[in-house]
Amino acid sequence: MITSPRSGCPINRGLEVLGDQWSLVILRDIAAYDRRGFRELLTGNAEGISAPVLSRRLTDLTTAGLLVKSPTPRGKQGRYSLTELGIATLPVMVELARFGMAVDPSTADAQPEFVRTGDADEVATWQHVLRERHLVTAER
Q1: Which helix (H) or strand (E) holds 51?
Q2: Sorting pLDDT into bands at 50, 70 and 90, what band is 78?
Q3: With contact defined as beta carbons under 8 Å apart, do 138 and 130 qualify?
Q4: What span, in angstroms and rounded, lies between the C-alpha atoms of 107 and 41?
Q5: Averaged pLDDT of the chain
Q6: Of 14, 23, 82, 140, which residue has the fewest beta carbons closer than 10 angstroms?
Q7: Does the model's pTM come out above 0.85?
């Protein structure tokens, strides 16, 4: 993640936070498949992320305020939860999935459930579900 913006453009800033090849995939895995622990994210990821890259991206996403990591006793792995800002990426993921399916229709079978219709009401419902799963959990 780039910490010092190259410009004042909001599109540029969004890309500086989410524009690498892994950040949205990690957020997808957490939002769509409830993979919350490091090992779950590492082994459940179909794209083959490496452990060092996953570790860096989780740190970046936490620093950027899209994730929080639950405190854990020494020797235990923490669980990651989406923040409100992380949940706000859901519409971006839906639109990116639509674009991906337009580019390669064969990917339609692998779309996350929250993309099925992609209409605003369904996305809002998913965001509500994620708030209950993640924001309440993060406060505990």
Answers
A1: helix 51-63
A2: confident
A3: no
A4: 21
A5: 90
A6: 140
A7: yes
